[in-house]
TrEMBL record:
GO molecular function annotation: ATP binding
One Pfam family hit: ABC_tran
Domain of life: Bacteria
UniProt-listed PROSITE patterns: ABC_TRANSPORTER_1, ABC_TRANSPORTER_2
Keywords attached to this entry: ATP-binding, Nucleotide-binding, Transport
InterPro entries, sorted: AAA+_ATPase, ABC_transp_ATP-bind, ABC_transporter-like_ATP-bd, ABC_transporter-like_CS, Oligopep_ABC_C, P-loop_NTPase
Identification of the protein by name: ABC transporter ATP-binding protein
The keyword Nucleotide-binding appears for this protein: yes
Keyword Transmembrane tagged: no
Chain ranges of the ABC transporter domain: 21-268
Amino acid sequence: MLNPPPADRGPGEPGVSEPVIRVIDVRRDYPRARTSLLKATPPVHALRGVSLEVQPGERFGIVGESGCGKSTLLRIIAALDRPTSGQVVVEGTDITRLPERRLKFLRSNLQLVFQDPMSSLDPRMRVRDIIAEPLVVQGHPASGARVRELLEAVGLSADAGDRYPHQFSGGQRQRISIARALAPRPRILIADEPVSALDVSVRAQVLNLISDLVDELNLTLVFVSHDLSVIKHVCDRVAVMHAGSVVETGPTGQVYATPTHPYTRRLVSAIPTLPRALAGATTSDLLKGAAE
Ligand SMILES: Nc1ncnc2c1ncn2[C@@H]1O[C@H](COP(=O)(O)OP(=O)(O)OP(=O)(O)O)[C@@H](O)[C@H]1O
């Protein structure tokens, strides 16, 4: 079985109604280079008091155009960065104040898939070692059988393990990243624009693979995209971000059909019609076009 029911793997087993992730009034300021000797330069307010909750087994989307703070929020949820203020509670544990050595439980329970598989896969490593790496880092032996099982789960043949990342297409490389993320049997999968760098012809295949695996393995998914049509394909609920704030949250179908915030209405009205979608235009391309 790819992901048997987890044994005790850390504090805070999610209860029936306990959110898996709670983000509470999170702010993140980045210092900006000084431009004047006389006046202090104000920081970049990347997150301006973001709050949201993700329930167990939910597929939660975060959408917004470039620079609205999506990656900053994901990095804070994954404890790769700390907020300036506010709290993030994952599976009942406030991770924002924990020292690095106490974050071990999070490093196996929560895994990430990034936008560009080429830059997130070490070109000098064979695929089998790439997939086994998170297990080895956590001090677990990685068996050949487990690597083969993961390759099969993402639709790659067992002999793919002997090859190097450059010997695969973009879509296949993203499958390798997904296999690596699943290796430590996470309960939470975070995907940051996982299909944006892929050829439009393989995007749906990779989205369907993520969807199927989330169902099969009973994962909670947090999925970030600048493209509402991609979110609509995968997610049950969505938070719309604009300029460091969440401006609207709701079931994806409802937000899509009856958006309440003016920014969401702009996003929805810019969703590509079929011919433009086939030509590969994204919501953000179309928003740019509309603004020009
Ligand atoms: N390390 C940093 N130092 C200074 N400013 C930063 C840093 N990281 C992000 N920012 C700024 O914070 C804001 C939010 O950036 P972030 O990358 O989170 O947005 P995003 O929505 O993920 O955009 P994209 O989709 O283009 O990655 C932007 O104004 C960005 O320039």
